[in-house]
Each structure stands twice: as C-alpha cells, then as structure tokens.
Specification:
It is a single chain. The strands form 3 sheets. This protein has a 3-stranded antiparallel sheet with strand order 1-3-2, with helices on one face. Strands 6-7-8 form a 3-stranded mixed sheet, with helices on one face. The protein is built from 14 helices and 8 strands. The chain is elongated and about 155 Å long. The protein is mainly alpha-helical.
Length: 449
Amino acid sequence: MQKSFGSSQFNQSDNSKGGNSSANFSQREADLAKREGALEEREKLINEKLKALDDKLAILEKTRQDLVAKLEKTTSLSAEDAKKILIENVEKDLASEISKKVKEAEEEIKLQSDEKAREILAETMLHGVTDYVSEFTTSQVKLPDEEMKGRIIGKEGRNIRAFESATGVDVLMDETPGVLILSSFDPVRREIARISLEKLMQDGRIQPERIEEVVRHTQEDVEKIMFQAGEQLAHEVGVYNLPRELVSLLGRFKYRYSYGQNMIQHTLEETKIGIALAKELGANVNVVRLGCLLHDIGKVAAPDDEGTHVDKGVAVAKKFGLPEEVVNCIAEHHEDKPFSSVNSIICYIADAISGARPGARRGDVEGYIKRIADIEKIATSFEGVEKAFAVEAGREVRVIVFPEKVSDDELPKLTHDIAEKISKEVMVPGQVKVTAIREVRAVDYSISG
C-alpha cells in the first residue's frame, strides 16, 4: 500500500509540470511569430526605400550625363579634355603658390645666413689673433768702423771670396758709411751670413779658415733654431708627430717673408682661422688644420726647382705620404685647381683673410702698380684683344677680345700665349690666371614711318 501510494503521488506531480511546460512553449511560439512578422515588415520597408534610392540615383546619373553632353556640345571638349584643363589650372595655381612660398623662404634664409656668416667670420678672426712679433731679417750689417770693410775684404779679396763661397751670399760694399749689404734669394743663407759676419767681427780673426769654421757652426745653430721654430708652430696649432724633415721645413718660415708678412705669423694666423671655420661649418677639422699648416710649404722647399710654390708644396705632401684631402688643400688654396671639397675652400678663405687683412702685408706700392700695368700691357699687345683688366691683386687677368677677330676655337691658344708671355716677362708670386671673354651681340634698329 505504501509503495502504490507513493507512485500515484509521483505521477500526479509530473503531470502538473508537463502542463506548465506546454503553456510556456506556446507563448514563446507566439512571441517568435510576432517578431518574425515585424522583421518581415521592416525588410519590406527597407527594400522599398532602397528601390526609391536606386530610382533617385538613376535620375541623378541621367541628369549628370545630360549635363556632360550639354557641356561637351557647348565647349566642344570631351570629358577627358575638360578634366585635363582643370588639372592644369589647379597645378598652375599650386605652382604659383609654391614658388611664392619658396621665394619667401629663400629670402628669409638669405637674411639669416648673411647674419650667421658675419658672426662666424667675426668669431673666426678673433681666433686668428696672435701675439707673435714679426722678426724682419735685415740684409744690412752695421760695421764698427770703416776699417772693418778692408779687413772683411782681405788681401786681394781672399776673405770676402771665402765668405761668399761658404755662405752662398753676395757681399756688397756701397757708399753708405758703416754699413755692409748681404744679398741672396735665400733668406736662411742670408741669416746665416749675417750671424757669421757679426761673430767674425766680434772675434776679430777674419781669415778663410776661421770664416769656414764660423759659418759651419752658425749653420748648425740656425738649423736648430729653425727646427725649434717649426716644432713650436706645429704644436701651437695642435699638430704633433710630424716627420723631422717636415718640421725643419716649417721652421724655415722663421726667416721667410711674403710681401713683408712673416711666414710663421701668417701660417699661425691662417691655421687658427681655418680651424675655427671648420668647427663652425662642420668640416673635417684635422684635414683643414694640416692643410692650412702646410699650404705654403712649397715656398721653402727646393728653391732651385722649377714650378710654383703650389706645385712644390704638393710634391712635398706626396713625398711624406700625407692624406689626399690634405694634398688637395695645398693644391687648391690659390684656385689653381677647382675646389674638391669644403676643406679646400676653408683653407683658401683662411689664407685670404690672413693675407688681405689691413696691415698684414707691406708690399711695394710702386712695384705693385707697375706689375699690374705690365700684365695689362702684355695682354693688350696681342692681336684681337680689345681690353684687359688685372684683378685679384694681379693673380688673374681678364681679357676681352673682338669677336670678329678672335673665334671661339682661337681663344685657348690666345690665353696660353698671354700666360706664357706674362710668366717670362713679369715677376709675379704664384700663378696668373688668364680668362678670355668673347661676346657676340646682335643689334638692330626699328625705323618708323
């Protein structure tokens, strides 16, 4: 009984639950049906709107095509041609605007760069200020009395011959009382002769054997002095460990002058200016440093060899295996070759600043004017030359020719002939650049009735 009752109770409970589930399911079906109807209605509405939109787009496309057809008919242009014209007009407008902006930017940069350049040069020249005092080597030796002239000449001139042979200089006895003149193209020889003669006069023993001994010792002393001067010059600009022979050559600047400017002073000043410029411009400071230091080394190297000091300087640099960039600085510091780098340009500028500043050089004004006049006279002496102008302190001559007398093919030969004649007849330091200019002009006149 107990078991049967329990089973009946369970079945009743299960039936109750089944009835509830059926009701819930029916409700869900009704909700889904309702939602599905709403979605179908919405989809129908969207399709209608899309159809209306397509109709409008079709109308707009037809209108556009009608307008394009009318435009082509009116302007006689195809759509592609009209598009091309439109693009060209836009490009012109943009180009004009861009050019305007670029020009404004260039003007602004130019103003700023000029100001910056002035600042750099001013700062650089301050770096070039030195406290070195020029020691001008004199060719005159003061004598204690007129009797000393006779002792220097010696019996039958044997003393003066021995002195000239040992020193390589000429001894001139002029009419000036108490003065003896030493003449030689080599300033080092002249300095050795001056010191030796002063030692001999002080010692009193003036005879051939003593002369040779004193000159030999003096030469050794001067070589030491020059080496010390070259070493000091190199160290002052921050260059070390140069070959001894190269340092000795630099030391010869101590007794070398160019237009009255001592070469050690010029080299020291020019190198400091070059270093400062290189730092400001971001160039290779070490190349500029060495290029400036050695730019005039040819002036004291192999005085008997042919060629300009630039050619000799390049030969010295190559002999000691210096870097190509340094060799180029030496080769291009007078524009004998086109500039190969900014380093060479800096060396050129530094050299010009040091040599051209007021008071740097004391050249013979009369000699300078005569040299300029001689260069121009030589240039105008050639057939077909109309005018000639010496510029750059005589380093360049610009020749203007008659175009009807000198053809373009004849210009190279004319410049070569002028340069060759100048080199033979005019004493000019360095090289003279000859530039020939041939200009053809067409002129006509209108005649009014």
